[in-house]
Amino acid sequence: MNSLLRLVLALAAIEAVTGLYFHIAETERKCFIEEIPDETMVIGNYKVQLYDPNTKGYGDYPNIGMHVEVKDPEEKVVLSKLYTSEGRFTFTSHTPGEHLICLYSNSSSWFSGAQLRVHLDIQVGEHAQDYEQVAQKDKLNELQLRIRQLLDQVDQITKEQNYQRYREERFRQTSESTNSRVLYWSITQVAVLILTGAWQMKHLKGFFEAKKLV
Amino acid sequence: MRLILPLLAILGASLVHAIELTFELPDNANQCFYEELQAGIDSVFEFQVVTGGQYDVDAVLEDPHGKVLYKQPRKQYDTFNFKTEQHGTYKVCFSNEFSTFSHKVIYMDWQYEGNVVSGGIKPSPKPIAMTALDSSAQTIADRLRLVDDYQTHHRLREATGRKRAEDLNERILWWSAGQTAVVVIIGIGQVLLLRSFFAEKRNPAY
Q1: pLDDT band at residue A169, thresholds of 50, 70 and 90?
Q2: Which residues does the UniProt record annotate as the domain GOLD (chain A) (predicted)?
Q3: Domains in chain A, ordered, with CATH?
Q4: Do B19 and A121 touch (CB under 8 A)?
Q5: Any bridge partners for residue A33, and if so which?
Q6: Which of A44, A201, B32, B71 is deepest in the core (most CB within 10 A)?
Q7: Which residues in A151-185 are b (16+ Cβ under 10 Å) and which e?
Q8: Residue A210 belongs to what H/E stretch?
Q9: Scanning every residue of chain A, which has its alpha carbon at the shortest distance from the alpha carbon of B129?
Q10: How far apart are CA B188 and CA B184, in angstroms?
Q11: Integer Cα distance of B127 and A11 in angstroms
């Protein structure tokens, strides 16, 4: 049996925690924005290392914990958990829009000014699926697995298209609101100007008459 | 050309990894990302400024020895294909240091081929025989990945426009309210000032 496909998909499922990394300060909060349609799964893998001035390198310290906080487009907190120095978090979106994934360490500042190296990998939608597991659970052969993967990809594309309609509608509503605001405020300002002028004249006329200058 | 990586995957050469992140870059800030890449692999790096200021950012891509492979000041979006010459840690930095008060939201996408296991297994492009059905399925998968890429580009452009429109909408409200208040204040102020000219003086001039 051609095991190339299995190998490829198995490798895709391995957590790539040795992938991309960046540095943050100890107490710094780093946030990433994921604009996703609804009912989409997001999986994040991370690993944190601490800078050790003695070895001038980054080492593993199992005592570091990382808070992971995920907010949905309405600023409601979807996930807020404390994980160890290496972990994986998952959430599924229930509203389409911009979700905010924030990472910050929980260490108190007796290591103040230390740099943390965070390895991060975030996968969205069908990239988050573990096909090895799916193949074993549903007992699929390679072709069936490949077709399942294609179906997932097409599903995701359809969801994104629907999200596109929703976004376009929001954009249109914003433009129409701008249009009516401009109209309303222009008319209001002209009215206020006329009223202010009329009040000024009336008031001054009364004032001069009282002063017996007219 | 975005077709490079999917085509190589068709040949059964290797796996395509991709990481895409959208993050906020505050003003006067610098953010760097590092990735360990094998030698001799193809990689595509892409970025786009979604919101903020004049929609521009400085981007620099360096190889493990610090040689600059890509450097563009104040670019709105760009795609950069390169083939790695050495194994090591490649660094990409975004800089918003030229801006004093606008923070930028930047989208970044870094694709490269290679095995997940770090520490030196070079991907060997052995073309393995696949049936016609297998290779068709593979082609479809790669085309769909391209569709996903284009949808992402479309979404980013639309997000830029939409955020600008929402910003404009809010600004109109506040500025109009402010202007109306200023008109009313000036109107009342003029009258009060004029009244003060005609105030009774203790010692009239004449």
Answers
A1: very high
A2: 29-124
A3: 16-124 (2.60.120.380)
A4: yes
A5: A100
A6: A44
A7: ebbeebbebbeebbeebeeebeebbebbeebeeeb
A8: helix A142-210
A9: A2
A10: 6
A11: 18
Output phi, psi for B32, to 5 deg: -120, 145
**Confidence check: pLDDT of A163 > 70:** yes
Q: What pLDDT was estimated at residue A110?
A: 57
What share of chain A in percent tops pLDDT 70? 88
Instruction: Give tens-digit pLDDT for A90-148.
Output: 999 999 999 999 988 877 665 566 788 899 999 998 887 888 888 888 888 888 888 99
Task: Report the Cα–Cα distance between both ends of chain A, in Å, rounded.
Answer: 109
Compute the 3-state secondary structure of chain B and give helix, strand, coil in percent, each to the nearest 5: 35, 35, 30
The answer to whether the Cβ–Cβ distance between B134 and A2 falls below 8 Å is yes
DSSP-derived 3-state class of residue A165: helix
Best B10, B51, B104, B148 residue to mutate vs chain A (most A CBs within 10 Å):
B148
Pick the CATH number of B15-124 from 3.30.450.20, 3.40.50.720, 1.10.10.60, 2.60.120.380: 2.60.120.380
> What span, in angstroms and rounded, lies between the C-alpha atoms of B191 and A127?
70
Q: Which residues of B touch A10 (CB under 8 A)?
A: none
Domain ranges of chain B: 15-124
Give pLDDT tens digits for A50-69: 887 777 778 887 778 888 99
Phi, psi (rounded to 5 degrees) for B184: -65, -45
Q: What is the pLDDT of residue B11?
A: 39
